[in-house]
Amino acid sequence: MCGIFGIDGCDDAANLTYLGLYALQHRGQESAGIVSWDGAQLHAERGMGHVSDVFREKTLARLPGRRALGHTRYSTAGTSVIANAQPIVVKTSMGPLALVHNGNLTNAVEIRRRLEHEGSIFQTTSDTEVILHLMARQPREDIADSFMLALEQVRGAYSLLLITDRALIAARDPYGFRPLALGEAGGCPCFASESCAFDLLEGTLVRELEPGEVVVSRGGGIGEVESFRLSQKPEPTRCVFEHVYFARPDSRVFGDSVAQSRLAMGARLAREAPADADIVVPVPDSGLFAALGYSQESGLPLEFGLIRNHYVGRTFIEPKQSIRHFGVKVKLNPVKELIRGKRVVLVDDSIVRGTTSRKIVRMMKDAGAAEVHLRISAPPTAWPCHYGIDTPTRDELIAANQDVEGIRRFVEADTLAYLSLDGLLASVSGPRESYCTACWTGDYRVPITAEDRRQAELFPIRVEGGE
Predict the structure, then answer these.
(1) Is the pLDDT of residue 452 over 60?
(2) What is d(CA 403, CA 82) in angstroms, rounded to the nearest whole number?
(3) N or C: which end of the chain has fewer CB within 10 A?
(4) β-strand 3-8 against 188-192: which pairing, if any?
């Protein structure tokens, strides 16, 4: 769950990249970085924290040039430290390179061990770095050829941007797990994880990259970009959880409006799991549009009975004297006047461990709700993701160890229901087999071997905090 953005051939490329990352901040809050090319050398700035914390006017002034890319990170492979912040910048026989990555390589451990045995020295614990090592071992006159040779050897999920002294190159894995779009801003080609980044620049979405497509911009306009294809041609396996949770509602992902998809999920949830209630309350922010869809379909009024504090950082000082539900209350607070005495349909996008959901249900009842009927706009999350989502191990996923009634008792809701898988897939366009549903079904379309599962030993998965 990271955000990537790049632009080529435009004045103030780093400033525009900063704005693009700002629009993608929801995809990662641990670190941010930008690299620019000024015609003579690469310039890099990285730091821990939000985009606006890392980049100030003086910082951006140190990033001249008409070509730039950037990254905002939420770690799934590699610990949350500055050494793993991207872009990763290296010098090679083909010139300087910088790479950013959204996704997760499932065979990174296997490749890394082989390369280390052959003498490679790694500077990070990020899976992304193996791509640069593979490129350095297969230099080609056209750097795009070296890039594609490296990509033919990796497996898993990746949307990538590579900056060189001659080009800005974008690539999407052959399965199309993670989104990556081509846009135009001021006549310049740009790339982003989501189309909302183009909107901030007053640009336009041209199209999504196809699965397995590599697009090269060599400093010309949007009409001069070149397109290539990797040799692998599996069936598309797009992550439908982008529509459930990740993407911003004002984006188009996999050809669909995210807002419309969530409205459809909420409406189908209302038909599948009606509740004898008075009001519908969303868990902000990801539950908003599903709750609106539920409200419209059921005829129950939508009330903003939970208010989110948008200024909470990733860490805060907890008082020594324990405050009940402090971790949730610092982010969410009920509007008692809207909730008191009401039978509430509480709509959220998922339940992971169940601890946060239980705290929210308790909070609603403490605020005076007569009943709380919890409705989830996706099926039960019962399997971990190996393709770029920071989900816990299966032992920690409540749906892997409890049935729906057991989960209902744990979260202390009066009733609990999930959207069916059929209902979810009917809410997005395209064949159902073109989506990855592994976190609900355990059907891993890119096979996961025992060696792949040991990736956590080398690239520790961060699981503390949150649900």
Answers:
(1) no
(2) 40
(3) C
(4) antiparallel
Residues noted as catalytic: 2
What is the reported pTM? 0.89
Q: For residue range 357-408, what is the model confidence (pLDDT) as tens digits?
A: 999 999 999 999 999 999 999 999 999 888 877 666 888 899 999 999 999 9
* Helix 288-298, helix 258-272: angle, nearest 10: 50
Residue 160: which of 199, 204, 200, 105 has the closest Cα? 105
User: Position 346: which residue type?
Assistant: L
Q: What is the C-alpha R_g of the chain? A: 22
Residue-wise pLDDT for 24-60, tens only, equals 999 988 889 999 999 999 999 999 889 999 999 999 9
Whether 6 and 19 have beta carbons less than 8 Å apart is answered as no
- Does the pLDDT value for residue 172 go beyond 80? yes
- In the structure encoding, which two tokens stand for residue 162, read together? 């590579």
Q: How far is CA 383 from CA 302, 416, 454, in A?
A: 32, 20, 16
Residue closest to 410 by CA, chosen among 345, 353, 450: 353
Q: Distance between CA atoms of 429 and 349, rounded to whole angstroms?
A: 19
Say what angle helices 404-411 and 355-366 make with each other, to 10 degrees: 50
What does the mean pLDDT of the chain come to?
A: 89
* Structure-token pair, residue 89: 């910048």
The CB-side HSE value for 20 (13 A sphere, CA atoms) comes to 32
Cα dist. 199→53, 101, 114, 234, 288 in Å?
22, 22, 43, 32, 21
Hey, which bits of 119-203 come out as E strands? Answer: 156-163, 168-172, 181-185, 188-192
Report the percentage of the chain scoring pLDDT > 70: 90
